[in-house]
Please model this.
Amino acid sequence: MEKILLVLGIFVAVTQAFYLPGLAPVSYCKKGTVSKDGQACETSLKVFVNRLDSAASILPYDYDKFDFCSAENDRPAENLGQVLFGERIGGSLYNLSFGANVTCNMRCRKEYSKDKKDDMKQLTFLTSKILKNYEHHWIADNMPVAWCYDVEDSKNQQYCATGFPIGCYADALGRPQDACVAYNNMAEKSAVYVFNHVDLTIEYHNPQPDKSTIHRIVQVNVQLRSINHPDDAKTVDCGFNAKPPLRVLTGPKAPAKQVIKYSYSVKFARNTQIRWASRWDYILRSFDHSNIQWFSIVNSIVIILFLSGMVAMILVRTIHRDLVRYNQDSAEDPQEEFGWKLVHGDVFRPPRFGMLLSVLLGNGIQVTIMSFLALVFASFGFLSPSNRGSLMTFVLVFYVLLGSSAGFVSARIYKMFGGEKWKSNVLMTSFLVPGFVFCIFLFLNFILWYKGSSAAVPFTTLLVVLVLWFGVTTPLTLVGAFVGFRKPAMEHPVRTNQIPRQIPDQVLYVRPFFGVIMGGVLPFGCIFIQLFFILNSIWSHQTYYMFGFMLLVFVILVITCAETTILLCYFHLCSEDYHWWWRSFLSSGCTAIYFFFYSLYFYQYKMETSGLANSMLFFGYSLIMATLFFTFTGSIGFFACLLFVRKIYSIVKLD
Model:
């Protein structure tokens, strides 16, 4: 028990590593100030804008899709992971001078005429996205600009979100919805308000106040207001008792001309409590039910560890008793063969569709190694949230480079089955599973293109993915298969009879269908709590950071899949059913079916999205994840069962 607690403590500790090792913080100083220690420092603070998204829709949109204040041709370089995830970071007009407070500065003015079709189209688009609660995502000093507000029914507790809404609305009865509930003057019937003023509070920390004049940003918060600035006023007034909120009107009620003035205020403040290395903590602590999440994960891990230990203990004791009985050597009382020893002449008979099984196993090992490496690097902070797109880039690059492992494993298994069509094996390993995933992804991308979403992958990026697939993965798969086919075939510990043995009638609970269905229950029970938070992070646009616990759950999932499949395989062999090849793969692979059905439940009861496009996108991406998860869990079960069968038949005495 002490070792278990020690391991848990290590994983809890590594989840606190959020920054890439070696990544240096940016130092700032006031304009005209000379650093005491001669260190270089920045005097300006750039604010970048990212895509806008909503928990009520899967379709994100580029900042330029809206008619906000935007800077042209000021986009930073984006990595492959950011592009595939739909991030579109661009510059903004909110470029600040460090340490210089700003009071009510107008940034830009937008005018809309009722007679112009394009203007009304822009207002209609803005109104529709306000009704769906779309949110800004701004970035300053590689930190999300957080919107913090008090939580209802809670004392001195704030929730800090990494995005803030573009507006809010009141329903037909005048009841404020979403962010409007925090304001007393936003309760007109069927009114839509736009937040056209932001109050930015930038807190900084001086790591060495006595030796240096440089500062580091530790917190950037925003507060929102809707102010109806008069168009004829030469200056703007952003006082809290200034003007009424700004309504956006469309349709017949729209006036001949509408003007939206976007303004902002900035306040710099010193913070001596937060250090630069822990500046993400106030955001991560704000996630919903974080305490419940930690407790549930720890609880499930301990339960699964004890349960896995019990299954392993029972299995080892039972096998040991069988071997003692089978290996008895008494001439006076010869033992009659029974149980799993009876099928020793058929247990290694090649299965039907051996080519397909070997291809799925090769791709499964590729996904398994890639997932393990990604979780290890993420747990130790190499794929931190501050390094945007790094996780997806890492996953894609390592999946491409691990094509050799897929080719090697597929070739070795196919040769063990006695297959000779090595060219077909290489082609299927390279194109079957990746091709299926790419076709779904391309179909979903067409939907995103049609909807004008920023999540649509550009054509040039698709070409890059195809080049990686055909130019890197496929040759590596060929190299791995070449090495695998050159090696001699794996020899089995027993010979296979020429005539297949007849399988007796099976009781209900050991028949293939029930065995496969039961095989996925325990592994899914190991992950379903963690799965909720992963799906919530993906579809609710929250930052997922507990990679240490996720790695531990990954390891326990592998152990649980292996033990469950071995246990079911033993029951099937004891009932004289030697068709274990496909069954071992499907038993643990069935976990992916439970995963997909849980995704359907999550969509129906946990998400607020609606519409055909959102449904197709959700189910399409869920199908991609379930497919890869199927190959991963299925390969774990197969190889665990293969090692188990080879082991028991190599140590039992046969006539």
User: Anything to note?
Assistant: DSSP finds 16 helices and 19 strands in the chain. Confidence is low (pLDDT under 50) at residues 1-22, 330-334.
